Amino acid sequence: MIYCVEDEMITCDLMVYTLNNSGFKVKGFCDSTEFERAMKEELPELIVLDVMLPGKNGLDILKELRQRSDTRNIPVILATAMDSEIDKVQGLDLGADSYLTKPFGMMELIATVRAVLRRSSGRKTATITQGNIEINPDERKVTVGGKPVVLTFKEFEILQMFMNNPGTAFFREHIIESIWGIEYMGETRTVDVHVGTLRAKLKLAGSEGVHIRTLRSVGYKLEVE
Fold first, then answer.
1. Rounded to whole angstroms, how far apart are CA atoms 211 and 208?
2. Percent of the chain residues past pLDDT 70, beyond the cut
């Protein structure tokens, strides 16, 4: 079970929905009172904790979790504002296992949750292979025909989403929401630019049997021969 503590209801609902669809059991809470009530009934495997909460804030909650013998080892991912570096530093000092900077994409959320769970359990994620393209999610490495390809953070996230879902059509708006986050205010043209550079890098590296197809008036999908 994963607990998501986030006071913005729309964001909380999206986090719960996304993680549920990724195979996790999730409960969402909009304030510390609901969260603490749930903690008395069932302890989670991991907590995604917003720093800025009404009433008791996330750092205070984290401090209390680390002081209790029954919760001190539960992995915690802090969600912090983009300009709140002090929150990240304090959170890590208090024992946070990782953090997400708002606005974050849902694919980034999934990747961070999986990485923290792997570290806490000692497990590794299997590589993803389509055609002669291979992704190592743990090391965030991509190879084409065994040769390394350097991608930006967003390019990697887009490629991983496509390779995990071959044949699935993704609307540009869905890609924006998943990769850049629900609060992203830019244009969907951003997706086209990143997909274009991703295609160019894969083609230059000699990718075979894998094609990122453009779907007119929709978005993109990965086709594997």
1. 8
2. 94
